Amino acid sequence: MDINSIMSAQVSQLQQTLQISIMDKAMNIGAASTIKMLNDMPEQTAVHPYKGNTIDISV
């Protein structure tokens, strides 16, 4: 094996490692911002569609 092929293989491995690292950081940032957004949302309770209302079921 000559030095060029060894260097090429090492550069390829370094690129792959760097891409994985960047992708991991981006996913962590995305997850953190999603969690922050969910925590900042105001607490709202869903209104039940018919509970508490009068329903006329005569036929």
The helicity comes to 55-70%
SSE string, helices as H and strands as E: H
Biggest pleated sheet? none
Q: Given the C-alpha coordinates, what overall shape results?
A: rod-shaped
User: Class by helix and strand content?
Assistant: mainly alpha
Give the total of beta strands: 0
CA(first)-CA(last) distance: 89 Å
What do the pLDDT scores average to? Answer: 86
Strand content: under 5%
By DSSP (H or I, 4+ residues per run), the number of helices equals 1
Rg from alpha-carbon coordinates = 28 Å
Low confidence ranges: none
Question: How does this structure look, described?
Answer:
This protein is an all-alpha fold and 59 residues long. It is 64% helix and 0% strand. It has 1 helix and no strands. The chain has one helix spanning 3-40. The longest helix is centred in the middle third of the chain and has 38 residues, at 3-40. It is rod-shaped. It starts with a helix and ends in a 19-residue tail after the last helix. The model has no long low-confidence stretch (mean pLDDT 86).
